[in-house]
Design brief:
Elements (H helix, E strand, L loop, with lengths): L1 H21 L2 H26 L2 H30 L4 H26 L1 H4 L3 H19 L12 H24 L4 H25 L8 H20 L6
Helix pairs in contact: 1-2, 1-9, 2-3, 2-9, 3-4, 4-7, 6-7, 7-8, 8-9
């Protein structure tokens, strides 16, 4: 069932990308939600496949929760295109939902990995690096020809939380001698960062020239790779 959900999710993602580029609107929102449902199902079936209650309790359930908030973020951010008069509300809602999803991913990492929990440095170093990452992202606003406006500080907070999750997964990878689950989780985080860097250009570009079909495909392709990889990480949690 895990592999069936994963395969169906890939197909649903391809369908969504085609609809999003050609039509957008409500059809794009519906197909996007369908693709997102499948990364949640992929994680759920991975929990069953794991066959280990501790893995599910300490890791799998938090990954599923994070993916659910990811799906909610998907819905809010697409509604901003459907109802542009409420752009700000849906943008804030989407960013908050995704941030909460990353908080659940973080909890999964520190709950399940005894190696990173054993040393405070595996928290302090990723956190410090994440704050620096968020600061650099905001500091390069003018260099990258972006204008965050009212979204500047939430963009900083979101970027730091995303980076913290990714760097924490990398810390767990190093602390455990490169266990597969943390390699997979780190890869998922990196794809998430790539996706959101592309999205920042699409949303906040001063010249309004980056919301192109190519960027739409790259943004969503890297995003869905990230979510399905994170969902699949449960299979490697032993």
């Amino acid at each position: 069932m895990f592999y069936a959900a994963l395969a169906a999710g890939v197909a649903a993602t391809v369908l969504f990308l085609a609809v999003r580029v050609k039509k957008g609107g409500i059809p794009g929102l519906i197909t996007k939600t369908l693709a997102s449902v499948f990364f949640i199902l992929t994680a759920v079936f991975a929990c069953f496949a794991a066959g280990n209650f501790d893995v599910v309790r300490q890791y799998g359930l938090f990954i599923v929760a994070g993916l659910i908030f990811g799906m909610l973020g998907d819905i809010w951010l697409d509604l901003k295109w459907v109802y542009p008069e409420d752009n700000d509300v849906y943008t804030f809602a989407g960013m908050i939902s995704f941030a909460l999803g990353h908080v659940f991913y973080l909890y999964a990492i520190y709950s399940f990995s005894a190696a990173v929990s054993a040393s405070v440095w595996y928290i302090i170093v990723p956190l410090a690096a994440a704050v620096i990452f968020g600061g650099i992202a905001i500091g390069l606003e003018k260099v990258m020809k972006l204008e965050y406006g009212k979204f500047k500080w939430i963009s900083f907070a979101y970027g730091a939380i995303l980076a913290f999750m990714t760097f924490s997964a990398a810390s767990a990878m190093i602390a455990t001698g490169f266990e597969t689950v943390w390699i997979v989780m780190t890869v998922g985080g990196v794809f998430f960062i790539i996706s959101d860097l592309i999205l920042s250009g699409m949303y906040f570009d001063i010249e309004k020239s980056k919301n192109t079909p190519v960027n739409i495909v790259l943004n969503h392709a890297t995003y869905y790779i990230a979510q399905f990889v994170i969902a699949a990480s449960i299979m490697f949690a032993v």
